[in-house]
Amino acid sequence: MPQTSSKKKISRNTISRLSLYLRELTRLEQDGKKAISSSDLAELTDLTDTQVRKDLSHFGQFGISGTGYEVSKLKEAVRNILGKDKVLDVILIGAGNLGMALLSYPAFREQGFSIKAAFDIDTRKIGNKTSEIEICDIEKVQEFLKKDKVKIALLAVPAFSAQKITDTLVNCGIRCILNFAPIVLRVPDEVVVSNVDLSKELEVLSYFLRTAE
Amino acid sequence: MPQTSSKKKISRNTISRLSLYLRELTRLEQDGKKAISSSDLAELTDLTDTQVRKDLSHFGQFGISGTGYEVSKLKEAVRNILGKDKVLDVILIGAGNLGMALLSYPAFREQGFSIKAAFDIDTRKIGNKTSEIEICDIEKVQEFLKKDKVKIALLAVPAFSAQKITDTLVNCGIRCILNFAPIVLRVPDEVVVSNVDLSKELEVLSYFLRTAE
DNA sequence: ACTTAATTGGGAAAAATTTCACAGATAGCA
DNA sequence: TGCTATCTGTGAAATTTTTCCCAATTAAGT
Ligand SMILES: NC(=O)c1ccc[n+]([C@@H]2O[C@H](COP(=O)([O-])OP(=O)(O)OC[C@H]3O[C@@H](n4cnc5c(N)ncnc54)[C@H](O)[C@@H]3O)[C@@H](O)[C@H]2O)c1
Ligand SMILES: NC(=O)c1ccc[n+]([C@@H]2O[C@H](COP(=O)([O-])OP(=O)(O)OC[C@H]3O[C@@H](n4cnc5c(N)ncnc54)[C@H](O)[C@@H]3O)[C@@H](O)[C@H]2O)c1
Prior knowledge:
2 copies of one chain form a homodimer.
Chain A: H1 12-30, E1 35-36, H2 38-45, H3 49-57, E2 63-64, E3 68-70, H4 71-81, E4 88-93, H5 97-103, H6 106-110, E5 113-120, E6 129-130, E7 133-137, H7 141-147, E8 152-155, H8 159-171, E9 176-179, E10 192-195, H9 198-212
Parallel strand pairs in A: 4-5, 4-8, 5-7, 8-9, 9-10
Antiparallel strand pairs in A: 1-3, 2-3, 6-7
The structure holds nicotinamide-adenine-dinucleotide (NAD) (2 copies).
One nicotinamide-adenine-dinucleotide sits at the interface of chains B and A.
Chain A binds a DNA duplex through α3 and β2.
């Protein structure tokens, strides 16, 4: 309702596709490519040229009729749309098998995400250090968020404790959660959750495998 | 075009939601709940009651007017729709940080997925054993798939080698790929790919964080 | 047996998303 | 300069997805 900005609402799928464009544009720039057409970008992302143009058109005009898009200019534009002009700080909750994989994934930092802190409840893990990040006691997360206004949390704890932690995080100012636990989190309207649900993905594959036969 | 089965095409999103229903129904059954209404199931999955009923209606009539759904009956029905009446065999390609997390995740087996084999190219990893699964030389994957007709692969290799491995896997009969590498895979029409793209998810959160301000 | 309340299934309407189609812009070349 | 190729941006149309709505069904209470 209080849509502060003047823009119309953009769907999550549109934003997901922008992320794909950004990835390809980054590669193209590294490869020294100067210009690209919507149909070539569509080819790279397995979409259609009109889809590409329509997606971009929600945010402005970035191309030149007859010529296409300048790679580095479009890349910057998409980066800005996605809010990647600044480094994006995140915290990690749960340094188990999955959490540790996330912590030691160098591409996050390269892509402008910075894991500022990691928290766990297991005393055997607290104090360990990986990739410059020390794992802290989950009890300290409240205190941490009072000082460091991180807005995004990666949630990699077991399902049974995910909701409780979520409530704490939201209370401490977390506004976005990337949730790996197989549970539908309850959050206030202003908090955004993305779910990474591997069982769901496998079941989708299972369904299509079955129906293809 | 050659739509073998008589059914109309069901969207991926519908199937994703069925997976959510299945998860909740499984919990409800474990908790001893006998019956549930579409609106209660919607509440649990953060959807609407009409969405739940419409999704199910594509596959038959599972409820009783005025009463709702019998939990165990609906659970079985959804399980069958998703092809989970049989154990689903998968292989893992790439036993790095992420691959090892997948390998040691017990919930997959509990949910009817079975990792039959794991493959890597790194000689330091080949021969190691985790959760009863020995990591094999990737060179052996072709041979393995000749004997074991596994149809689903979890692909957790670096992006630069993902396409090449994919071509091999598809040649050897793999029909579904759960891809963790940040790349759009090229596959023939009959092969289904699901992408788990964490950077994409984070960028979606970044966008919504920015626009919420 | 009758009434009331709850609930499904599915056609119809509404909303959202994708695709179509084309005017207008640009570059290359004769 | 004029012609042709190409390509964008965007309303309009088509398609897909979601929501609305209600007749029909069931259970429970009186
Ligand atoms: N590992 C996988 O491949 C995989 C796949 C799909 C989904 N998941 C999901 O991801 C989540 C994490 O999986 P995992 O394999 O890393 O599990 P894990 O058990 O290895 O790690 C969970 C970690 O969370 C910590 N923890 C528990 N309660 C906590 C709390 N209240 N506060 C802070 N930390 C807490 C534990 O000490 C542990 O270190 C789970 O919800 C799991 O279902 C994992
Ligand atoms: N770790 C994360 O948190 C994370 C997050 C997002 C995406 N990803 C993606 O998931 C994939 C795996 O990530 P990771 O962190 O496990 O990387 P990793 O480097 O730890 O592991 C990759 C593994 O693949 C193996 N490999 C390389 N080429 C191979 C080949 N041709 N055949 C078989 N095995 C091969 C390597 O030996 C290594 O063991 C990557 O594409 C990465 O971009 C990882």
